[in-house]
Amino acid sequence: MIAVEAIKFNHDANAATHDALNIRENATRMIGVPEWRRFICVNPEDSRAAYAAAPTHGNAISIEVSMSSTDPGVAFIEVRVKDRVKARPVNFINGQTGFVTFELIDPPSGHGHVGIWDVDWHWEYRTAPHHPWHHFATTRHRIYVVLDVPREPWKQAPYNAGNTQLPWTDVLDYACRWAEGATSTDMAAALVTQHVYALGPGVVTYDCPGGGSSHYSWGAFDCTAFVDRLRGGIGNGVYVNCSDCATIVSTFANALGCNLWQSRMGWGFALNELLAIGSGVWQTACGWPAFNYHEVAWEGACTANDDVYDACLQVDGDSDPTSAPRVPLLPQDLRFGNPGDLLYRDRLATPAGRPNCNPQPGTRQRRTVV
Amino acid sequence: MSVEQRRFLEKRYDASKWRGRGGQGRRVLEGISLDRLEIRGWTLVRSQRAEHAETTAIRSLWRRGESTSELLAVDVFECASVKAAHTQLMDALGNMQSGAVERLTDKNAPGDVAFGLDDTMVLFARINVVVLVRNAGPTVVPVGAVARKIDALLERWPKSEKSR
User: Fold this and answer.
1) What is the mean pLDDT of residues B58-75?
2) Mutate to test the interface with B, among A267, A279, A312, A360 (most CBs of B within 10 A)
């Protein structure tokens, strides 16, 4: 009997150019290598691997596979997964091959867009060229594809269980679905922004009772609680504010290879009417006259010349954001702008409030995930 | 928090009138826990304690009844001094977007200094301890009575030998 014993997707922890990224499941659980082990892994979610499209582009992607044979007559065979893993000869010594390198055929990362694929690999062998192929094993895997190596707060090193900033599959499970099909970082960030805003009012809603206070991002990003909330748990409750939304968007988008920051604008500015996350009523946030500050996911240096993604609210997108009628516009890849530009700043703040609604690039940060 | 935001908040909340005052000269509270806190009708869902160099933070979530529609988030920060507590208080205000949060000055207000919004969020400092009580569930409940209950617990808390 021939069997697959183990498969390594992330066989080189120091590179993301020809194999999988360094990842973990969440704050407390690591994903070990080999990712697939015989008798342990049954379903696709038991064997997860993530690839970055940009650094692997044009490169051969390889895995390492260990096989066994209980048949003493089998010493030299050819092994493949039709259309998925290139055939190659393997040699059994004392019934074991040790880890041997296989090249993938048309891997998902080669398509250059974000996604999640659950794959069933049907392993086959033949004893000599021109002999028929025989099925001997099926392995199942969950493959994540992101656009580029995840950016901070996510890290690739050090690759050990103590590094809780390795990208979490708990986050990729949502981020890759939200941004499915995205071929650029702007597109991915926009899709993440749309999906976060769409979580209202069922999953999260703007914190009117608490004065717009941070429930998930005061200090570090309580990503564990937020994922719990996404999965239908209590999390830290239903309320979010702008810092929470900015942190969620940038952290989830950066897991896909985007390059966003959490940064504030302020201080103390009057608001145009808007649609806060979870609300269907056009009004200044919760009816308050002003924001002491506001925070968004922001590109580049987080200045007036850089683009913002705001999943916390929709602004009036027509030619006069200070009065009705209202045309809902979710700010995504929208330049912050200067007063009079009719860009993000003008749509958020009243004419009188705009001079106090200034980018505060000194507040630029990427909160650690916990 | 940035220097500019702190400056804005100090002016906005008239910090010169309360910062560093109230608990000065009194013995600090130490070893604060919510184990002794009983809030009629409310059940502790979870409590997490995080020890930092200067502050111990207790983040807790409470539920009324069996459903999760009525939830309270109660955060308690035990700081090293009154001054540090007021800095923590300012940090909490710095994470609230609303321009409608105001200082509570009536005689029923908890703590040495308190801020609130309607009766749905209360933030106060008692000596070296900062408490934030706010709604976390979709059914909004008043929080003032709970804040006063916690303040009463702090008032009864054994004082440390230290005075800061």
Assistant:
1) 94
2) A267
